[in-house]
Amino acid sequence: MRKLSIALAAIVSVGLLAQAAHALPRIVEDAKSECIVGEQNDGYLGFVDGADGSAELRREVRAINQQRKQAYARIAENRGVSIADAAVVAAQELINKSGAGECVQDADGDWVEL
């Protein structure tokens, strides 16, 4: 039953995040294509190998991560799973949808370029 709940959470979260992904600010899109920012294995954006971005980029990444956390919280509440579980399931979908040349975290937390 728990796996089914998580799977359902993923379906809903991917729909919500797909909308957000299309609306990424240009600065974040550029940072992703340059492997400054990437999709982490926990469902949030992160700075690759300690990369540091401008204050504007850090602000945008924080804002996106806050929106994601709110989406995960809604899904978790509706599906009876933890926020972390909803985020991890969504992370896999976000990583799978990342483009060539972008960096993502593998299951061990290492950054890899696609």
Protein traits:
single chain, 114 residues, mainly alpha, two-stranded antiparallel sheet, two-stranded antiparallel ribbon, 4 strands, 60% helix, 11% strand
Question: Poorly predicted ranges (pLDDT <50, ≥5 residues)?
Answer: none
Figure out the total of helices.
Answer: 4
Structural class: mainly alpha
**Sheet with most strands: strand arrangement:** 1-2
How big is the Rg?
Answer: 14 Å
Rough outline: globular
Strand content: 5-15%
Task: Summarize the helices and strands and which ones pair or pack.
Elements: H1 2-22, H2 26-33, E1 37-39, E2 45-47, H3 55-79, H4 83-96, E3 103-105, E4 111-113
Antiparallel strand pairs: 1-2, 3-4
Helix pairs in contact: 1-3, 1-4, 3-4
Description:
The structure is a single chain. The protein is mainly α and 114 residues long. It has four helices and four strands, in the order ααββααββ. The chain has helices spanning 2-22, 26-33, 55-79, 83-96; strands at residues 37-39, 45-47, 103-105, 111-113. Strands 1-2 form a two-stranded antiparallel ribbon. Strands 3-4 form a two-stranded antiparallel ribbon. A hairpin with a 5-residue loop joins strand 3 (103-105) and strand 4. Helix 1 (2-22) runs antiparallel to helix 3 (55-79) and helix 3 (55-79) crosses helix 4. 33% of the residues are buried.
Summary, kept brief:
It is built from 4 helices and 4 strands; from the N terminus they run ααββααββ. It is mostly helical. It is globular.
